[in-house]
Design goal:
The protein is an alpha+beta fold. It has eleven helices and four strands, in the order H-H-E-H-H-E-H-E-H-E-H-H-H-H-H. A four-stranded antiparallel sheet has the order 2-3-1-4. It is elongated, with a radius of gyration of 32 Å.
Length: about 300
């Protein structure tokens, strides 16, 4: 098969169906950009989970006199009175015996009051809160933060324990929302992908119909089906490649302008550990491969139906 013939046939096909080819390129570019963006979003969520889960603690709040005196607001464990030194010592000992626990930090009522004033000192409620109303607590850092429920099960309801709270619940809500956004992007990507496939099939069908005389002559002189189909498949692959290149450019532009460059998210949201260029660059070959293979396969299947000479 002469390469010059294939290239000339690709050029002829692209010129004859310029508008539809342009539509295919745009559809492929948008669908692959959403696909790559979804993969990057998944990496971002995983990186944020690892970053934040490693920093959050499980807090075991102990009963104080206020909890014991007010049975309506106090927990059931606090109905027996404020935490005793023996109970406090036993809780700390049991925590340090657990293999899951990395560090245990005791926070007194005075320390809790100081931290409260630092965070909420500007509010009206801060003026009426006293140190004796603040609960003592143990701040527990875990070796495997995702297993925080083990601490809750072991200490919730124990005598002297007001409540066991973990910061993972708030983070789980955030990550759940991000996962929903990721699924929404995947759904839009699938819709755009279907549109792109339909456009590719339609473009191949129109191209095959407009060149039916040439393909008929080629068949009469003994050309094989594969020889006849290659220019059509290459046209679809070329359009898909251009669309994939545009998708890669959009992903790179998003990383550069939105996350890294100037007044970007990385400088405005320093508490979030954003993904880097290594994540983006690992996705680009996959986007390019899909951009070439998807239109080629769609064209091949379409030709089996429409290219009958």
């Amino acid at each position: 098969m002469r390469a010059q013939f294939v290239v000339s046939e690709i050029g002829v096909g692209l010129r004859r169906n310029l508008t539809m080819t342009f539509a295919v390129i745009i559809s492929v570019a948008l669908s692959l950009a959403l696909f790559g963006g979804s993969l990057l979003m998944r990496d971002q969520v995983s990186q944020m989970k690892g970053y934040w889960y490693d920093k959050v603690n499980v807090s075991i709040y102990l009963c104080n006199k206020s909890d014991a005196e007010n049975s309506e607001t106090g927990s059931k464990s606090c109905a027996k009175g404020a935490v005793t030194p023996e109970q406090k010592q036993q809780i700390e000992t049991d925590l340090k015996k657990m293999d899951l626990v990395q560090t245990v930090h005791y926070e007194s009522a005075d320390e809790a009051y100081k931290h409260y004033k630092e965070r909420f000192g500007h509010t009206a409620l801060a003026s009426v809160v006293t140190p004796d109303q603040m609960p003592e607590s143990f701040r527990v850092k875990l070796k495997e933060p995702e297993k925080y429920q083990v601490i809750t099960t072991a200490f919730a309801g124990r005598d002297g324990v007001q409540s066991v709270e973990d910061q993972h619940r708030e983070l789980d809500n955030l990550f759940q929302m991000l996962n929903y956004l990721n699924w929404a992007a995947l759904g839009i990507m699938l819709i755009m992908l279907v549109v792109a496939l339909l456009l590719i099939v339609n473009t191949v069908r129109v191209s095959a119909f407009s060149r039916r005389r040439e393909t008929g002559i080629m068949r009469l002189v003994g050309a094989s089906s594969f020889y006849i189909q290659v220019p059509f498949i290459m046209e679809a692959a070329f359009a898909g490649l251009i669309g994939a290149v545009f998708a890669c450019l959009m992903l790179g532009a998003g990383q550069y302008f939105v996350i890294d460059h100037g007044a970007s998210l990385r400088t405005k949201m320093e508490l979030i550990n954003f993904i880097g260029w290594d994540s983006v660059l690992t996705k680009l070959p996959l986007v390019l491969a899909i951009g070439v293979l998807m239109p080629s396969l769609a064209a091949f299947l379409a030709l089996r139906k429409y290219l009958k000479v």
